[in-house]
Every structure is written in C-alpha cells, then in structure tokens.
Structures
1.
Amino acid sequence: MGRFNQALLGKQAWRIWSRPESLVARVLQGRYFARSSFLDCGTGTRPSFAWRNIIHGWELLKKDLSKEDSIRWSFTKDGTYSTRSGYQFTDALLEFQSQHNQALPPIEKKLWSNIWKIKAPPKIKHFIWRSLAGALAVKERLQTRGIPIDATCLGCGAASESICHVLFHCDKSRQTWELSNVPLPPAGFSRNSVFLNMLHLISVMNNNRLEQKILPPRQIVTLAFDEAEIWIAANSLQAETEQVSSAKAWSKPPVGAFKCNLGTSWINAQSKCGVSWILRDSQGNIISHSRRSYSAVRSKHEASLRALFWAVESMKNMRQNNIIFEVLLFPRPSPNLNWIVAQINALLEHIEFWRLDHVVEERNEAANLIAKSVTTRRKYHSYIASQDPAWLQSLLILEGQSQ
Ligand SMILES: [Zn+2]
C-alpha cells in the first residue's frame, strides 16, 4: 500500500514537472517555488500536507531521473510516466544493488534467487523482495529518507517502526504468527534480521511442507537454522572485494535479475537495419543473444521499437522473467508507430517483472556491435544463440568483469 501511494505521488510530481503550464503546476509554483526550479525546491516554510506528499513523490521520481544514465521510462502509449509500471519493477532493485555492490555470500545469493521460485502470487514475491531490500514504507525507512516523522510504531507504541518490527515483532504480528500454522523458529523470530526470518519462511514455503507434510516442523526448523549458520559463517568470512570503476562499462544486474541490452543500427530507409539483444545474468554470464535484420524501416525510432519488439518477444518465448531492458534510444511515441507499441505492450503482459532503462553507448558496446554487423558487415541472417559469439569474446569477458 505504501509503495502504491509512492507510485501515485510520483505520478503527481511527474505531471507538474512535465506540464508546467497546467493550472495546478502554476498555483503550486507561485506558492512554493516562485524563484527556483521545481527540481531544487524544498518543502517551503509552511508546506501543506498535499505539497509535502507531492515533494515526497518528486523525491522518488527525481532519484530515478538522476540515477546516472538510468531513466525509468514506462511503456505507455504516449510515453508518459505510468503508475502501473512504476509499481511493476520498483527501485527496490536499484536500492538493493547500491547497498550490496560487493559479492554476496552464497547462501544470500540463494535466498534472493529463491524468492522467484516461491509458489505464491507475484504480489507476495514482490513484497518479500521489498522487505529484504529495505524498500517498504515503514516509518524508520521514511525517516532515513529525510522525512521528518516520529518513528514510534502506532501498533504498539513500544518500539520504533522498522520492517523487522512490523512484520515479526509488533503485538499484532506476533499474535498472527502464533495463530497461523506456520512453523516458527524455536527461539522465535530474529529481533533485527529480516534476512534470517525470511530465510526461515522461504525454506518453509519453497519446500511446500505445510501442505504435503513430508517433514515435521522440527526438521524444517533445523534445516532453516543450518542454512542460517552457513550464512553467518559465510558473512563473517566475506573478504573486502575491490570495486572496479564501472562508470563507462556494462553493469551487472542485481542478483536474481537479468539484463537484456538492446542494439540498433539504422542508416536509412533503403538499407537493411540491424537489431540485436544480449541477455546476461547477475554474474555477467551470457544466457543468449540474437541478431535480426529488417527491411524498409523508416526511422531510427522505428528501428528502436523493432529492437524492443524482437527482444520482448524472444524473452516471452524463452519464458524469461525479471528483466531489465537497456536501450540506447527511447523510442519517441508517434501515431504511425502505435501498432508496434500495442504489440510490445501485449507481449510485456507475459513477463512478470521488467523495467526499461536508458543506457549510454559505452555501457552497451557488445549489443551495438552485433546490431552494426548488419549494416557494416552485411550479416543479414537472423539468429538466437546461447553460445558466446566468438568474435566478441574478449569484449564480453571484459564487460563481465565490471560491476
Ligand atoms: Zn509495534
């Protein structure tokens, strides 16, 4: 719910920003940011409740807009910010990535990728993901984002409202857990580690032991604690990994997500145009890659949409989820290209989590080279392959070593 509100507020902020001539934008500007731009304004001296909320929404949006070269662009027909896609693949991923840039211990990696295997509706998986990434709108989190509120939990008034407290320790949650038939850890839930608690719950859920009763709860608990011990051991041994500067290189997606880089090469409507995609996991391993050539493509925006169509269709056919698509050029919406947009939207319905990001050329080199092989080396045959393209191997190794 909190997240949904944030998405709505983001939309409100977007409206003001993108339509400065609108009445609501002008009223707010006169009152709150007459002498500064919307980007810089604070909450003013006596901000109204609505304005504070809009500022909060704007903070979230601005964070996205300014995040290096990554701009969230929702795939709506008119190219405006959409609540639905803002909600679909939240910035939890990026937030998590920035906190955990170092290599994760194996057990933690396993947990992150296991989230997607839980037999539960996407909503539940998404919720677990966000609770682990620290991206739920509890008071303590809002406070660390600079929102001036009292962090005391309204449920019990006895503790600060953290994610761990709300989910596991607040009076009502404790009662709920007691009444549920979920086997609890014998020593109770951890006081401060959402990770350990989720590890326990996920191992219970993934093994589906509640329904099948294959193992008695005691054994599940033992298993969970074994795993927790391994995690603690792995964590304390974790070496300081050296951070490679990655400003100008391809960057790895977070654990559990995949990155699909798109390439486009277009010269003019008479020449063949090339599109490509490369799908890589969080280790930088190539899952698969593809090239396709098209004739009679009228503009580079159309080429960019063709590339996106081809990539999304391939991902759907491969039943691939959790994808960050990276494109060089955001296709400009135009009425005569709406038919492709509609097709892409229909295909995206089949992908559980996705996001579309803008990427600069230096971060997209391998995909660009594959697309250019159509226009510069006349490689017209289309393919999808899972083996590394031999002629790009050294580049791909280099890209795989970056963050
Ligand atoms: Zn409480």
2.
Amino acid sequence: MNFQTRRKTVLAALVCVALGAAPVLADSSVTPSNDRSTWPEGTPRSDAAVDLGRHLFFDPRLVLSEDQSCASCHSPHAGYADGVARDLTAHKKWKRAKRNSPTIYNLTDAPVVHWDGRTPAGQCLTAKDTGVETCLAPLEAQAFKSMRSRKIYEGFLPKVQAEPTYREMFKKAFPPNGEVTHLNMALAIAAFERTLVSNDSAYDRYMAGDRSAMSIEAKRGLAVYEGKGNCTACHSGANLTDWQFHNIGVDSDDEGRGAKLKTAAEKKEFRGAFKTPGLRNVALTAPYMHNGSIGTLEGVVEFYDRGGDRDANLSPLIQPLGLSNREKWDLVAFLNALTHTVDVEVPEIPGLAAR
Ligand code: HEC
Ligand code: HEC
C-alpha cells in the first residue's frame, strides 16, 4: 500500500468516528486512489499519454490479422474482462487462451500481474527496436510483453509509425521527440490502464460513512465476508486482494504458480495456486476463476461453502463454511455492491475509419 492510500484510510476512519457511522474495518476500508502522482517513476502521467494509450488499447492492428485489440479480451462492456471462459486468440490461430481474461481495473498498485504471477515488479526487458533494456513496473512490463508476443515488430509498430495522427499524438505524449517505439507504446497503454480506478462503489460510499449506500442484504453480506466466510483472509485491502498465491481447490490441472517457480519445494508448495484476484467490479466479469469454470457469483459462493472442489494441495484457509441460504444471498449482494465503472469513450482509430 502506498502513502496515498494509507492517508485515505486514516481520513475515512476519522470521518466514520466523527459520524459514529459505518464500522471501521481493518484494511478493507481503504478506497483506492486515482492520484497520478503515485504512479511509478518514469511513468508518463499526462492526459496526452493516457489518450494515446486509450487509442492503442482499442486498436485492432495489435495482431497481424488486424482484428483483435487489447479491448477484445478486456472490454469496457464486460468490466474490462470479456465474458467468456477462455477467449479465442488471433495470434495463436484462433485457439482458446489457456486462461480466463482477468479484469484490468485497479491494477495501479499491483505488485505482480498474471494468474501465475509471471510478471512481477522490476522485470527488465530489452526492446528490439532501440536495443535498450528497461526495468518496468508490472503493468508496463505486461503491455510490453503482450505486444511482443503478438509480433509488434512485424505489424503494430510499423503500422503505428506510418500513421500521421499517431505521430502527432506521440509528440504530445512523449515530448520533445515523440519517438514511436515499442517501449513508448507500452508506457502509453499502461498509463491508460492506470486510469481505470474503481473507487466509488456503494461499498466505498458506505465505508466513507454513508450508511444508506449499501442495502441491508449487502451490509449483512459484508459481515459474512469478514466473519464466517473468512474471505478477508485473502481478499483484503483496497482492491480486495492480498496479491498472494493460493490453491483454493478449483477443478483444474493447471499448475499455476507452481510451474513458474524453480525449486522442487516451491513447485510443490504452489502447485495449483493462483493470484488472488481483486474483487472490484466482480459482478461484471463472469465467468470466474483462472479457467472461467464457475459461471455466476452464486456459483462461486456455493463453491466456497462446500470448501472447494479438489483436495490436492488445498490451502488450509479453505474449509466448508456451513452458510445458510440467507448468508449466501447476502454475500452475493455484498459482491454486487463492489461495482463502480469508469466511463471511457471508445476512440476512433487513426487510419482505420477511412478504410
Ligand atoms: C486474446 C485475448 C487477449 C488479448 C488480445 C489481450 N489479453 Fe490481456 N490477458 C488475457 C488473458 C487470458 C490474461 C491472463 C493470462 C494469464 O494470467 O495467464 C490476460 C492478462 C492481462 C493482464 C494481467 C491482469 C492481472 O490481473 O493479472 C493485463 C494487465 C492485460 N492482460 C492487459 C492486456 C493489454 C494491455 C493487451 C493489449 C496489448 C491485452 N491484455 C491483450 C487475454 C488477452
Ligand atoms: C485462501 C485464500 C482465499 C480465500 C479464503 C477466499 N478466496 Fe476467493 N479467490 C482466491 C484465489 C486464489 C482465487 C483464484 C483461484 C483460481 O482461479 O484458481 C479466488 C477467486 C475468487 C473469485 C473469482 C474472481 C474472478 O475474477 O475470477 C471470487 C468472486 C472470490 N474469490 C470470492 C471470494 C469470497 C466471497 C470468499 C469468501 C467466502 C473468498 N473468495 C475466499 C483466494 C481466496
């Protein structure tokens, strides 16, 4: 947690005490910050960079066949996920992706991204166009790798370089030279992603002292979430995740985090473990889990209630819960109170409209 969000916690706590209102609950009372000054060093923070990133994010020339953009799998219409269990990938001959597309809301503070954590902070990557190696924050590194695996040097990069409108946008976003490079494209896309901060849900307003912001069901659901459900053992903090890896017993042969670690002991410890997903806007991002195997939030709650589906290497934090029907209903109502979307205008892509 950075300084900014910490200060907010304190403020929220003071407000609650002053009003004698909503309970102040450990870490989960934190509302995520959308203050750009907290972005990592070297991250372009201007509106021009964000605007450029938004265009690149929606540009279908990401892939050689020019028919898939970042937004195809991280769509504003599906909470920046995509509504299917596993998407079809253009760059892999329209085969199914290995895993479910996660939302990209609220990743600004993520110390690591990807279900198996293969993109941690400080990964150093060399761009082929400039020959320069740069160590990046997870979001920037992910955007860099995501384009590289889709053959950016053969397709996206020269196509963007050829568009006069894009070249103007790069000048504004990366003054004075405005170089159209792989790295700058990644920085701009990540800058756009960093603006997708969900922080004004009914839950946030409730925690800030507005007692009427959440329904009675959602308030009872919050109590289950923090109490009998034990959800905060992992889904804690401003984004309702501990950013750690756990095996919660999803029915799957995917080794997850285990496959990414080196020693036999680590592999064993993390076999079938995945990064705890943040729960902001979770009502919009069905289906759920790393493989999209659970279709609804009701299904997720049933899954936890029975203590998962697989015993192999199961986290000791996962136990049957014995929830009543009302408690299950309330928990789902609480998860629905985590919805707040950011309005983003889908841009007209330079050079595509005219075709
Ligand atoms: C064909 C669908 C598809 C496209 C296109 C796509 N993604 Fe993804 N994205 C995924 C999937 C699937 C994952 C999860 C993979 C994993 O963790 O193993 C993912 C993971 C991510 C993550 C990590 C999220 C987290 O919480 O761990 C980010 C950030 C992201 N994508 C951004 C992008 C950007 C930026 C682009 C465009 C440059 C892009 N994606 C293009 C499907 C896609
Ligand atoms: C031991 C840690 C842990 C506990 C306790 C836990 N979760 Fe999770 N949760 C995870 C992990 C890890 C995943 C992803 C697992 C996977 O895909 O295999 C997950 C996935 C989810 C998802 C799916 C999100 C998505 O975007 O796909 C929801 C919803 C969820 N949990 C809600 C809850 C609720 C509600 C509780 C309490 C009843 C709870 N979790 C308890 C760690 C935990």
